Amino acid sequence: MNSPVAKDASVFEHPHFLIFTTRSGAQYLFDAATLTAHPLFQPVSGEQCAALYEDCDDALRAAVAEENGVSALCAYMLKWRRTARAFGASHRGCPGRISGTTDDRERSCTQPLQWTPAPSTLSNLILVLTKDCNLRCDYCIYSGLYQGFSPLGKSFMSWETARKAIDIFLSLNDTDYFRSIPDRKLDISFYGGEPLLCSDMLEEVIRYACSRNDGRFKLHFSVTSNLTSLTKRAADFLVSNRIGINCSLDGPASEHDRYRRFPSGKGTFDAVWRNLELLRSLDEAYFNEQVRALVTINGNSDLEAILRFFDDPGQRAPQIAFVNILRDLATGDFHKFFPFDSRRYQQLHSSILDEYFTRKRNKIPVPEGSFLYHYVEESLIGVYSRIMKFGGGCQGHYTGTCQPGRRLTVSTDGAFHICERISEEFPIGSVHEGVNVERCNEVMRRYAASLPSCNNCWARGMCHLCFAHVGRDGGFRFPEEQCRFARAVVLDKLVTLYSLLEEVPDALSFGDPLVDRYRFLDVR
Amino acid sequence: MIHSDNNNYFVFLPHTQFVRGVHGSVVHDLFDGKLYWFNRQEISEALALLAKGRSIEEAAERSHLRYDELRQYIDALISLHVGRYAPYPFATEGYRPWALDAQIKKEGFNFQGGSVTIELARECLYDCEWCASKGALAAEPCGCFVSPKTDTEISMLPMERIVRSVELLRSLGFDRLVIAGGEPFREADRLWQLLELAARLGMKSELHTTGVIDCEMIERLCSFDVRIAMPFAASNTRAFNRAVRHPSGYNSLLNAVSRFASRGVAFTAKIPARIGREEAAIATADFAVSHGAVGIKFLVYGLPGKHTPEHIRNVVAPQGPADMAVDLRQFMINSQRHHCFYNALFIGADGAVKPCPGWKIAVASLAEESLATILGQGFFDRFAATARNDITSCSACEFRLGCRACLVRTIEWKGSLDAHHWLCSYEPGAGVWRK
Fold first, then answer.
1. Quick check: B22 and A182 CB within 8 A?
2. How far does the CA of residue B397 sit from the closest CA of chain A (Å)?
3. How far apart are CA A496 and CA A378, in angstroms?
4. Which residues fall within 8 angstroms of residue A307, CB to CB, at 6 or more apart?
5. Distance CA A210, CA A216 (A)
6. Which residues of B touch A513 (CB under 8 A)?
7. Do the Cβ atoms of B20 and A25 come within 8 Å?
């Protein structure tokens, strides 16, 4: 879900808070420092709230004593300031994420960005086997439309590079720290270009990794593929070894073929579908467990047609792993060349939301793997889980970026990168030197130094921007347009989330028992 | 009181939490550490419906209450500042865990710190009657986690293994090191090493000692940023020395106390309180405070053969709803796991690894495996997941998230985790407090 809502009088943005209005007309005050949303029981203007945020505790106490129109709100604010450091308490001399001076801002940005291993560190190795591809999709990251990404090329990973990458990955994991994590699972993924163009190499690497691992870790392999070049032999290997497949599939032929094409311009849907059927015919259980669709949404997508396609059991489409909304629909590079009608997209988006709300209201399940789950619910859960974690807003660093080294992407030349989505201008090591922690820190420092005035942005604890979004031309850039869009995305999610929770308070049973069972702490 | 015809909903404020049991319900004000109990099924049902966003009218109808009657209860809640009338069914999130379950699974211990207790020595200079090694019945361990005496001599865990374990735990987020015994000064070399390690790793340290230490060691101890806990067995020489069965225990303690006080080192007094002699314990506490103790911890205990767990229960059990009020931190810990097991680990002198010092049987042994291997096998998951809601006998109780009774003692004295809690004075099915 990535559609900015139109801002109107119902929204008030302030550096330290946001006032938003849900579908029912209820108003909430969202506190940026604590990521908590508070009902506004009586109409309060944004300007009044801003003044209360600036007021010291004594001024608020005086307002309570006066028993004026906002005295109840002031009493409430005082209580939250005292205990949770909300409502401006944290930018009044207290340590916290909001601070006034540049020095403070930099310190609060850089301190959490010291590279430290976390359990999720180094749990995912992504091998870019080739930059070559048999397709020429218009919105491909290597199509040449995106700054910082070179077009598709003929480079292939050598066996020696792949072998070294596996060795380094397994040895980096062979430490006391990682061994102490129960049931640690390591993912090894193959990426491209089109990795199935190197299916022999892929098989060799999997065999080698298994032999080197020798049962120490639970290894899981997966391939991200367009699936048009799948051979029977490769299919047999993938099925017999239970290798996961993430297949690019944007919906029905009319949607998929719009931008996913062979160099001749012909759509690829038929070829993909034929190979999906091949995998299904080899082992249906495998197909249901291991084959997933990666759906890319663009401004011209017919969201309703995509919903129908994946929802219709008669279609027998694979379950969805991820819905990728083309990088910043409003600001992205692709749509500069392929414009879209934002009003039409907004209408379709609203219609999908209506459908989602209807199902939730009527207790119709929205299962993981469905389009509604990945287009709507997953992002709501992301916001909800940040909100539900107490003090979430006071921890971690600005924006939604990860720590370099969590995953390790190896490009065809053997360089290590932060992830498969970032341009290759920020390497953090190589198969020759291993992971260079100092370079990881350097990337984080540069990122922190490039952050705009996040201290004065109410969305700082919910922002989705990361290295991959803003890394270009050898540096990290945060154009105001992109920040504005990021704020709009968060606003949209908050409005949708709280509208949903008003209507269906227990709508988001997202599998976390700590939240699900305590939502109302009802008797079991 | 704000309510008009447009205010058809009642909304609990985000810092409150409604908890329902089979009979009654409570509303926790987590910021003020207060609790409001509703001992009537119809009201509990109505409040649950209101918490789920139903209108006041619907809640009254479905719970078979008169509308005006429900309004009276709501007015009372509003006057207590736990909720408000509203024209909309506002969505408010009361309970916010510190860490989500998914995060706990993913990050293991790696959140909000943690505490590792090291039993540095088994031997002790004292022979206290409340000592766990003598089978005393105590509500909780006194801090000297002496394991029951055995005929066989134990082999001490190599120091290198202890150091590596503490370093690993630090990298997992543990930030507190508790050094206990017996008497840790029986292994003074190891003690200094551990204190230096804690300082190097930036961990807070706490030392449980008898206080029978020579001046040189006290001076050296003062150079560390360590919190000290010592037993104050009585307020006069004779009673003290008799209680700990040491001829110069009292004088040694006063010597240590005066030196700590002169150097500004804070210490906590552990006050044994034998069943039936509570007044003497209070007098001892006054004595400890007058000598500079900054914290007091009572250890209620009974003698084997003379007292039963019921005797202890009568002294320490909560007497009513007011005793079940908790603040935000305690509520969060209680709702995520058992508060004793909150990021806690115990390493015995022989390498026994347990989730809690009171736990009788070791989960694993550091003498045989590395801590990384032990943690990697997930032994501690069951303790991490043991919250009040997971205990059958507690899940029906509306006070379950305000309860701080020791789970280990329940298992020890009642034989089962699911047994009615040994410290419990409340009957959730009937909604009554036992005397």
1. no
2. 8
3. 12
4. A352, A355, A371, A372, A375
5. 10
6. 101
7. no
Rounded Cα distance, B381 and A56, in Å? 45
The string of DSSP codes covering A401-466 is ---TTSEEEE-TTSBEES-TTS-TT---EETTTEE-HHHHHHHHHHHHHH--SGGG-TTTTT----
Tokens of A204: 């060799």
Edge-to-edge strand order for the sheet containing A291-297? A319-325, A291-297, A244-248, A218-225, A185-191, A124-128, A407-410, A416-417
Find the CB nearest A514 among B2, B93, B100. Answer: B100
Task: Note whether A272 and A256 are within 8 A (CB).
Answer: yes
Convert the pLDDT of each residue in B351-410 to its tens digit: 999 988 778 788 899 999 999 999 888 877 777 667 777 788 888 899 988 888 777 788
A378 contact residues in B (CB cutoff 8 A):
none
**Length of chain B (residues):** 435
> Comparing C-alpha atoms, which of B125, B163, B161 is closest to residue B144?
B125
Query: Tokens for B339?
Result: 């508060």
Instruction: Read off the pLDDT of residues A91-109 as tens digits, 9 standing for 90 and up.
Output: 543 333 333 333 333 444 4
A83: chain B residues, CB-CB within 8 Å: 15, 31, 328
Q: Tens of pLDDT along A273-309? A: 999 999 999 999 999 999 999 999 999 999 999 999 9
**Among all residues of chain A, which has the CA nearest to that of B41?**
A523
CA separation for the pair B255, B263 (Å, rounded):
12
Structure confidence by residue, pLDDT tens digits, B106-118: 666 545 678 999 9
User: Do the Cβ atoms of A268 and A252 come closer than 8 Å?
Assistant: no
The answer to whether residues A333 and A146 touch, using CB atoms and an 8 Å cutoff, is yes
pLDDT grade for A330, boundaries at 50, 70 and 90: low
Please tell me the distance from the alpha carbon of residue A109 to that of residue A448, in angstroms, as a whole number: 6
Task: For helices A480-503 and A342-361, give the axis angle rounded to 10 degrees.
Answer: 30
Q: Residue A339 and residue A317: Cα distance in Å, rounded? A: 29
Q: What phi and psi, each to the nearest 5 degrees, are found at residue A75?
A: -60, -40
Q: Three-state secondary structure along chain B?
A: CCCCCCCCEEEECCCEEEEECCCCEEEEECCCCEEEEECCHHHHHHHHHHHCCCCHHHHHHHCCCCHHHHHHHHHHHHHCCCEEEECCCCCCCCCCCCCCHHHHHHHCCCCCCCEEEEECCCCCCCCCCCCHHHCCEECCCCCCCCCCCCCCCCCCCCHHHHHHHHHHHHHCCCCEEEEECCCHHHHHHHHHHHHHHHHHHCCEEEEECCCCCCHHHHHHHHCCCEEEEEECCCCCHHHHHHHHCCCCHHHHHHHHHHHHHHCCCCEEEEEEEECCCHHHHHHHHHHHHHCCCCEEEEEEEECECCECHHHHHHHHCCCCHHHHCCCHHHHHHHHHCCHHHCCEEEECCCCEEECCCCCCCCCEECCCCCHHHHHHCCCCHHHHCCCHHHCHHHHCCCCHHHCCCCHHHHHHHHCCCCCCCCCCCEECCCCEECC
Cα–Cα dist B339/B334, whole Å: 6
Tally C-beta pairs within 8 A across A and B. Answer: 171
Pull the structure tokens for residue B294.
Answer: 């900054």
Quote the ipTM score: 0.85
Is B401 in contact with B328 (CB distance < 8 Å)? no
pLDDT above 50 for B188: yes
* Closest by CA position to A143, among listed A304, A298, A301, A352: A298
Q: Region A61-83: what's the mean pLDDT?
A: 88
| Residue A448 · residue A397 · CB < 8 Å | yes
3-state SS assignment for residue A486 = helix
A218 interface with B at CB cutoff 8 Å: no
Both tokens of residue B221? 């101890």
Does A119 contact B at CB distance below 8 Å? yes
